[in-house]
Amino acid sequence: MAQQKLSMPTWSSRTVFLLAAIGSAVGLGNLWKFPYVAGENGGGAFVLVYLACILLIGVPVLIAELTLGRSARANPIQAMHQHTQQDRANKLWVGLGVNGMLAGILILSFYSVITGWSLAYFFDSLQGDFLQIPPAQAEQHFAALLASPWQLLFWHTLVMIITTSIVARGLRSGIEKAINIMLPGLLLILMVLLIYAVGTGAFAESFAFLFTPDFSKLSWQGVLVAMGHAFFTLSIGMAAMMVYGAYLDQRTSIVKASLVIAVADTLIALLAGLVIFSIVFANQLPPSSGPGLLFQTLPMAFGQMWGGWFFGTLFFALVFFAALSSAISLLEPTLSWLEHNRGIGRMKGALGLGGLVWLIGIGTVLSFNQWSELTLIGDKTVFALLDFLTANILLPAGGLLICLYLAWVMARPRRQAELRLEGIWQTLLLWDLRWVAPLAILWVFVSNLFSASSTALWAFLSVLVLYGFFVAYQTRSREEA
Ligand code: PFF
Predict the structure, then answer these.
(1) What's the pLDDT at 413?
(2) How many domains would you assign to the chain?
(3) Whose CA is nearest to atom 12 of ligand 1?
(4) Helix, strand, or coil here: 371?
(5) pTM of the model
(6) Residue 378 domain-assigned (yes or no)
(7) How far apart are CA 406 and CA 421, in angstroms?
(8) Which of 13-18's residues contact partners 24+ apart within 8 Å by CB, and which partners?
(9) Mean of the pLDDT values across residues 78-98?
(10) Residue 377 Cα, ligand 1 centroid: separation in angstroms?
(11) Cβ(477)–Cβ(96) under 8 Å?
(12) Is the CB–ligand 1 distance for residue 329 below 6 Å?
């Protein structure tokens, strides 16, 4: 274990840690999902509920997750082993690490396919494919991409090659270097697009849409979506932040860092929303066009506008950068475990893991065409099932376990040493992690289970069985060692 601590790398500076964590948080969730779910759920009222979820559940769970990572300075599975030993807790808590790693692999398998769409759109836009594109043709363009397994496979493969080659180089020469280029690039592009959005003349309308709450348009389902999205967007519940926390030096304040990450993530989601809706409204297009908002409505809007070629291309570069900096954080927890616990070299581990994720991703690729009729459990395609399983089951389960462990199981002095909070702030955080966050998460979890009935139940039970096996295997191999 001492050796494990020595071999754990650290971020070269606090700033680069913050950039990497923000890079993980800001992704397709901010640029693709947030605007369309806000659009579908009535705009302002949804945004308000979403902000409350970030503050009451997102930030506390993020603090808890970074704390569990840093205090053990180890990958998720190893970290939970250490915690359970030191707190004399049940070994089943290791399932928390397993859950996170499993979620990361499954999320990346479809995240990479959608990142591939943004890369394809970047090149299409660069070629001028969207200039003056009429509505029917924009729809057709997207449908043609989805209908072609070979095209999807090509982009998915390219994204996985890029992601794997970044993480294979390790923390400092891989992840940090990539982050140092992508994050400033992302912020710069967003600023340029913001100025452009103000120039469209529809900025005020877009602002009103996102910030004027109309609660009659918000359903309970919308509240559940807001809560689920708060998890996804902050990258919590799946051990990515835990492993990023494990590389963090002891001096950085976890509470302050979590606030910075959450504020940056939220600001970027809102700014991206303002940009997207300004462009949509300037072209009299509907804000609630669902998942097609980014890949159908926007290209059409850019195609009609002054400077659309340039700004459209820039926009898809932004989406790609944001998605890639999230993708690398999805691979890191398992890679770190393979390296430190299984003794598999980083390059070899990255290749194997990247290959596995690539293979699983083929299921998502085919679910848009060849396998679009194939429904595995209930009426879900492979992609829909993976999305459902991760966003509605694995991430909330991970988040729930994380806050329960930190607030109820971790020994007080060990917790204090990491949190360094005093007085009312400490009481508030603990109260939130003990009651507010777990109950809210449980509510989402149970509601989702019921709404999806047998699908969710089966998925949930299979995951439980998987846990059982993995934890038993882990415990046995440690005892043998
Ligand atoms: N936070 C990312 C987004 O909003 O797109 C998605 C994500 C990345 C989720 C990394 C979980 C994660 F570990």
Answers:
(1) 94
(2) 1
(3) 235
(4) coil
(5) 0.91
(6) no
(7) 14
(8) 14/249, 14/251, 14/252, 14/257, 16/176, 16/179, 16/180, 17/244, 17/247, 17/248, 17/252, 17/257, 18/257, 18/260, 18/261, 18/264
(9) 94
(10) 25
(11) no
(12) yes
Residue recorded with tokens 């529809």:
202
Q: How confident is the model at residue 290 (pLDDT cuts 50, 70, 90)?
A: confident
Whether 232 lines ligand 1, by a CB cut-off of 6 Å, is: yes
Looking at per-residue pLDDT, the higher value among 281 and 450 belongs to 281
pLDDT (0 to 100) of residue 218: 85
237 vs 234: CA distance, rounded Å: 9
| pLDDT at 194 (0 to 100) | 94
Helix (H, G, I), strand (E, B) or coil at 284: coil
Query: Residue 471: which pLDDT band, with cuts at 50, 70 and 90?
Result: low
CB 389 within 8 A of CB 81: no
Inside any domain, residue 212: yes
**Identity of the amino acid at 278:** S
Output the pLDDT for position 166: 97
How far is Cα 387 from Cα 33, in angstroms, rounded to an integer?
12
Q: What is the pLDDT of residues 374-420, one digit of tens each?
A: 887 777 899 988 988 888 788 988 999 999 999 999 999 999 999 99
Asked if residue 137 belongs to a domain, the reply is yes
Task: Indicate whether 439 belongs to any domain.
Answer: no
The more confident residue out of 378 and 133 is 133
Looking from the CA of residue 28, the nearest atom of ligand 1 is 5
Q: CA 135 to CA 343: how far, in whole Å?
A: 54
What's the CA-to-centroid distance between 236 and ligand 1, angstroms?
8
Contact call for residues 402 and 68 (beta carbons, < 8 A): yes
CB 234 within 8 A of CB 25: yes
Structural domain of residue 20, as residue ranges? 14-369
Distance 105 CA to ligand 1 centre (A): 12
Confidence of residue 3 (pLDDT cuts 50, 70, 90): very low
Q: Which two tokens stand for residue 371?
A: 């396998």
CA-nearest of 102, 111, 20, 110 to 398 is 102
- Residue 361 Cα to chain centre, angstroms: 16
Band of pLDDT at residue 5, cut at 50, 70 and 90:
very low
DSSP state of 174: I
Strand runs (DSSP E) across 313-421, as ranges? none
What CATH number is attached to the domain comprising 286? Answer: 1.10.4160.10
Single-letter amino acid, residue 353: L
CA of 335 to the centre of ligand 1 (A): 17
Q: Is the CB of 240 under 6 A from ligand 1?
A: yes
* 211/205 Cα distance (integer angstroms): 10
